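fyi for ur records
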Amino acid sequence: MKLHLPYYSEKTTTTICGEIVEIKAFQIIVWVSVSTDPRSEWDTQNPRLPAILDIGHNHNFTITEAHLLRWSGIHVAALQKLRNVKERGEKIPLCKAGLWLHSDSDPFKLSIIEGIAVHPGDWPRLPILGLRALTNSKLQTFIYGDAKQVIIRTPPPWYWPF
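which gave:
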């Protein structure tokens, strides 16, 4: 799996389900798909939705109930609750789900054993893909500031971890 992503030094927009969404300067956007069953295989009917790649976010994936329903067609009640976590002073459910990262070719199934966080309120402004999902999926991430490019990939066959 290999993914090339540009990012921009000025505000841009994208459209999801007919809705224009603002992308702030220096936000790296990845496209993901969510399913209700973490064991399921890729389904071409799963909608793609934008998420901010945030390596400072220490969880797998965070999304609001509203985005999950509007953009993925999934009601939070359709997801199996694993447990709650406390975030920003609120109890937030962690739910079982399947999560795919769209690459330059086929979608890549991310390893998110701990589930996804589904916020009932209006935070985050856009879904967030965090460092835990990249780490658990054993993905390499390179940020090239001079070219405003990000590459996410599976390690090459010759790679030997430290």
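The chain is about 10% helix and 40% strand. thats all i got for now
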